Amino acid sequence: MLDPSFLFAQSLSGLTAAMFLFLIASGLSLVFGVLRVLNFAHGTFYMLGAYSAYQIVLWIGPGPGTFWVAALGAALGIAVLGGLIERLLFRHLYGKEELYHLLFTYALVLILSDAAKILWGTQQKSVSRPPGLAGAFTLFGVTVPYYNLFILLLGPAIALGFWFMLQRTRVGRFIRAAALDRETLGTLGVNVSGLYTGVFVLASFLGGLGGALVTPVRTIVPGMDTEIIVEAFVVVVIGGLGSFWGTFLGALIYGQVLSFGILLFPRFSIFSVFALMAAVLILRPWGLLGRPLK
Amino acid sequence: MVVRAFLVMLAAVLALPLGAEAQKPIKVGFPMIMSGPGALFGEPAAKGAQMFVDEINAKGGVLGRKLELLVRDTKGNADEAVRVSRELILKENVDFLVGTLTSAEGPAVSVVAKENQVVFIAPIPKTDQLTAPDKLHPYVFRVAATTTMEGRSAAEIVAKWPVTTVATISPDYAYGQDVTRAFVEHLKKIKPAVQIVDQQWPKLGEADYTPFINAQLAKKPQAVFSSLWGGHFVTFAKQAKPLGYFDAIKYNFIGVGEAASPESTKSMGKDYPVGIWGNSYDAFYWEGPPAHKDYVARLSKYLRDEYPSSWAIQGYIGLQFLTEAIRKANGTDSDKVSKALLGLTVDTPIGKQTIRAKDHQANRGQLYGKTVMDPKYPFAIMKPIEYVDPTKFID
Amino acid sequence: MRLRRLPWPLVVLVAAFFVPALGSRFYTFVANDVAIWALFATSLNLMVGYTGLVSFGHAAYFGIGAYTTGLLMKKAGVSFLLAFPAAGLLAGAFALVFGFFCVRLTRIYFAMLTLAFAQIVWAICFKWNEVTGGEQGMPEIPYPSFDWMEGLAAVVPLVGGYRTSEYFYFLTLVLVAACLWLLHRIVDSPFGRMLTAIRENAERAEFIGINVRRYELAAFVLAGGFAGLAGGLFGIFNRGVFPDFVYWTKSSEVLIMTLLGGMGSFHGPSLGALVLILLNQQIVSYTEYWPLVLGTILVVLLFGFPGGLAGAAGALWTRAAGRFRRA
User: What is the pLDDT confidence band of residue B16, given thresholds at 50, 70 and 90?
Assistant: First the structure.
């Protein structure tokens, strides 16, 4: 039990799971941070990203670059979809109560998941690992698949890219400002409406990308959207709704809790994550790294 | 005389509506999961049932009446299954129910069937609870395997392997728990030298199996029994393979829950952990009895699929049993059909199947085999493939 | 205008008693379903509509009520007379504990915490095989005994000779009507008006000396208790109690119902329950894409009729009445 290489393997698997979750939850957190909307449909964007990646792989056929093209294409496709939804529908609800936002995104879940069923049927789909990353290597006596290593590197890379954009660019400053005080930002002459669309597009892109990138390690099935969204909620809540680094931290904690939780309380994992979520909300509702809402 | 004349008149009056009745279709309600992860099985099962109905109607139906199949989505929820089943009975006036998939839906709908006195044939739920002595009633029947039958079949196979330390990995809910218990108990009985060294219970619908895989490998089992089904198995296998899991146990792995069904191997293609053992309700490439080849050809045409689903057979057999029983009972009266089903033997595409009078359970075995790549197909198949008849360890 | 003065709820109740007389068991079945969901949705509206607390975990209390009645009646053989109020009490007790933490939070955090608590309850129901039956739930909850009704039939005409399911329907009607009447009394009381004041402006309510949290908690507990009673009835009606009762999608279903009917009026949620259930019954006969239909309805509702059906009907009524007066 105390074999160090085993502990290393467990923490590594928790880390990989965390990076996947971060990819998915970061978009959810971004939209909440700026638009103050908890997007139930984010999980559905993730599912559509997975299906789209599968579809593009099918169209192009096997090849060294297929998977990467498919992943990027799927993410862009979902980004466009997200943009359209925001432009045509969602923006008309901005002035209304939160309940309307929640129910609108829930309506999207219902509509889009049935649309996916119409397009792709009910049979499970699977996408192979990209050719260069199919194998594994050994590190300190632990087998690490190359694809997991790629995800382990991609997660922090995206986090840093994000951080850079938020801290160092003009758009990033506007996004941060919008999260704090949108009215003032509007009076300063910033195109807040365009900014909202941009944020929604970016979040949808991340959701779609997350969906596309899990295809090599998970199965694409109907219903994968409602399974992931609750997990993403947990991560975002633990880290702090709308807090970017909080989401990263939340994902890391969640991953480790799952990895080591199965050793200590093997049969209580479905219980423990919700208990964790409730505990954070009770003790520190704005999450570990978030800021209290005004 | 007067009495006799009256009786003749009465018969004539009664015969009129009866004659009209004969022309009405026999309605069969089919509550089945058509959305969510379980739709993977539910949808083809419904298609198989529909194919049977279409075929028999083309031949003039049963007792001169057509069959009509009414499919309703249960969403995989027991309460939804109950709701649509009652709606089928009360609103659509179905004569029979065939359907349900999960181990929660089956027993829940069984209660509805009992209270409304409607014959209910379960084609997929495996939970022993469905036909357990205290739950059994005249209207419930099953043409699926049970967790006992499936677990024991797998134990029979594993007992022949040269291994002594065995581990299990199963989803943590009724089906996974029951089939694993049946496997472990039977294996210990027939091969007492075996030791169960590890049991992993990922939650149903787990997305990340890596921690379970690591934990299991740390116990160094020589063989593993799994009851992860459908997409869950595919996800598990995709994550386990690059971790060297299957190599570490030398492919001494048996996956029940139809892990070797053509659907699973097809969707994974070359990513499938070829060399493991698994089972399936059907396989289009199986030689089987003579009728099977014809069935596969028809199904392939019906589904417009070169490699047709292995789940269609469950809907098909369910309807086949029902039709035979209607014929034998010479009508649609629930009690007569229920009696007709007891001990009924039907020549199905997979061979003769009998519903035991004792517990209303068909001797539905499954196909087992070791998976290999075959140049004829772009995915793995079971070869040699064997139909494991569960008759000798059904009790 | 005279139509408006009719005691509509009473008319509906009396009419509902004659549903089984229509001769179709199906109508009784649907009416029973509607009655229970009407109570469930109205209990939610006490929070969402009257107090302005958006709960995403109201199914938890519905489920706790269902499991309470189910366990007591099936496993302990307790009479319905005790098992039914127990459902409300236990659900209310859980609502008190969970609500104590929830009302400390505002808006989205409140919604998230209600969701988290509901998921904890779901996980317990799903896992605790020995007590709740785990994922398979508890099928075959017995009906309450109606022998006394048959006994009564010997003396009073017209009360005997019904099926058990029809007796249960009558019982549901009586109990739901009583609960709705109580709820109506609550929202019409000074207490209810305080809740509305809190919804309109919690800060101002605090200024004028209302202990906002305490009032919110009281609303939470009442809503939970009545949801528990609805759940107690539903477990029997559904012939079994299952963990799906508590899953978060159930909570969103009842929210949709409330919104569809209209959160602005007391009877809106009941109307929503009626319309949504009837619609569902009709549509699933034609297509398996019910979620798609429901989602589309929801979008139309959010953009076109934010007041729900009750709001839209009210507006229509006012306009028609205005035209009538002019004519």
Answer: very low
**Which tens digits make up the pLDDT trace of B190-228?**
999 999 999 999 988 888 899 899 889 989 999 999 999
C-alpha B20/C-alpha C170 separation (Å) is 36
Interval C96-103 mean pLDDT: 94
Q: List chain B residues with CB under 8 Å of A251.
A: none
CA atoms of B325 and B331, how far apart (whole Å): 9
pTM, 2 dp: 0.89
Q: Where are the alpha helices (DSSP H) in chain C?
A: 2-5, 8-17, 25-45, 59-70, 80-102, 107-127, 129-132, 147-153, 164-188, 190-200, 202-207, 212-237, 248-261, 268-283, 290-304, 308-326
Chain A residue closest in CA terms to C122? A271
Peptide bond into B384 cis (omega under 30): yes
Which one-letter DSSP state was computed for residue B125?
Answer: -
Q: Are C246 and C121 in contact (CB under 8 A)?
A: yes
Mean pLDDT of all residues in C143-147: 85
pLDDT (0 to 100) of residue B29: 95
Is residue C21 situated within a structural domain?
yes
Neighbours of A257 (CB within 10 A): 19
**Residue C272 within any structural domain of the chain:** no
Give the CA distances from residue A173 to residues A162, A260, B86, in Å, rounded to whole numbers and listed in that order. Answer: 12, 39, 58
- C306 to chain A, any CB pair closer than 8 A? The answer is yes
Answer whether residue C90 is part of any domain. yes
Domain that holds residue C136: 9-247
Spatial CA neighbour of C177 closest among C224, C226, C144, C220: C226
Given a cut of 70, whether residue A138 has pLDDT beyond it is: yes
> What kind of fold does domain B25-145+291-354 have according to CATH?
Rossmann fold (3.40.50)
Min Cα separation C302/chain A (Å): 7
pLDDT for the residue C306: 76
Q: Does C150 touch chain B (CB under 8 A)?
A: no
Which CATH number does B148-280+366-393 carry? Answer: 3.40.50.2300
Residue A293 DSSP SS3: coil
Q: Residue A288: pLDDT band by 50, 70, 90 thresholds?
A: confident
Is A123 within 8 Å of B263 when comparing Cβ atoms? yes
**For residues B72 and B360, what is the distance between their CA atoms, to the nearest angstrom?**
24
Are the C-beta atoms of B383 and B376 separated by less than 8 Å? Answer: no
Query: Other C-beta atoms within 10 Å of C222: how many?
Result: 24
| pLDDT score of C176 more than 90 | yes
Laid out side by side, the sheet with B223-226 consists of: B195-200, B165-169, B223-226, B253-255, B277-280, B366-373, B380-388
Strand B26-32 versus strand A142-145 pairing type:
unpaired
Domain count, chain C: 1
- pLDDT of A178 > 60? The answer is yes
Of all residues in chain B, the one with the smallest CA distance to C236 is B79
Chains touching B, CB cut-off 8 Å, 3+ pairs = A, C
Mean pLDDT score of chain B: 90
- Subunit contact A278:C108, Cβ cutoff 8 A: no
C51 to chain B, any CB pair closer than 8 A? The answer is no
Which among A32, A37, A40, A103 is the top mutation candidate for probing chain C, defined by the most C β-carbons within 10 Å of its own β-carbon?
A103
What was the pLDDT predicted at B7?
46
- State the complex-level ipTM: 0.87
Instruction: Determine how many CB atoms are found less than 10 A away from the CB of residue B361.
Output: 27
Residue B121's closest CA among B287, B315, B268, B298? B315
Asked if B208 and A17 come within 8 Å (Cβ–Cβ), the reply is yes
Q: What is the mean pLDDT of residues C87-95?
A: 96
- Count of residues in chain C: 327
CB–CB of A233 and C115 under 8 A? yes
At residue C324, the pLDDT reads: 64
Domain limits, CATH 3.40.50.2300, in chain B: 25-145+291-354, 148-280+366-393
